[in-house]
Amino acid sequence: NNYAGIRFNYQYYGLEYADVVSKNSYAFQRNWLFIKQFHEFSIMPELYFDKFITRKKGYKWTSYFDFGFSYLVSHDHRKREQYLAFPLILGFKYNFYKNINALAEFHYSFTNTDMIDGYEDNKLYPQNHWNTYANYPFSPNNAYVSNIFQGSKAGNDALFSAKIGLSYTISSIY
Questions:
Q1: Facing residues of 130 across strands?
Q2: pTM, whole model, 2 decimals?
Q3: Nearest Cα to Cα of residue 32 among 153, 171, 142, 130
Q4: Is there a contact between 40 and 72 (Cβ–Cβ < 8 Å)?
Q5: Best CA proximity match to 128, nearest among 109, 153, 100, 148
Q6: For every one of its 174 residues, what pLDDT tens digit does the chain have, with 9 covering 90 and above?
Q7: How does strand 69-74 pair with strand 81-97?
């Protein structure tokens, strides 16, 4: 209806981080690297703060809130990794042509894992762990190879993104 909808979403994105570019001395010495590609499938209700009716003047703009479940899949390593996430989205949508909308949104997802970046809490890793984990030919000059580092103790990982894009409204309410 004009105040709610159901959102089916697919996203493909990559996450990368290299300590070697950090200005933080601990991170620079740790010298970790991770690179992962994800497919995310989600379904969630979309609640509009303002009445939103495509093709009708005066109702073309709304802010909205989404929440729901998503399924994350990564194929970067020898085995397929699968995780659940619980996204919260705050966005703004403008209907500019027929059923096509422009949008801007902020997306925060809680996950059920601490392995999004490949490093678990309360586990020690040798500094060169990223060489075997990421299987990526990146080898900066490293004087701290014998050091051992621990992953964050913050709990499960979370993802945050901001994006602009286009959406298509399948049905219109008049």
A1: none
A2: 0.72
A3: 130
A4: yes
A5: 148
A6: 678 888 898 999 888 888 788 888 877 777 777 788 899 999 999 898 887 766 677 778 889 999 999 999 987 766 788 999 999 999 999 988 888 999 999 999 999 988 887 777 666 666 555 544 444 343 444 433 444 555 566 788 889 999 999 988 887 555
A7: antiparallel
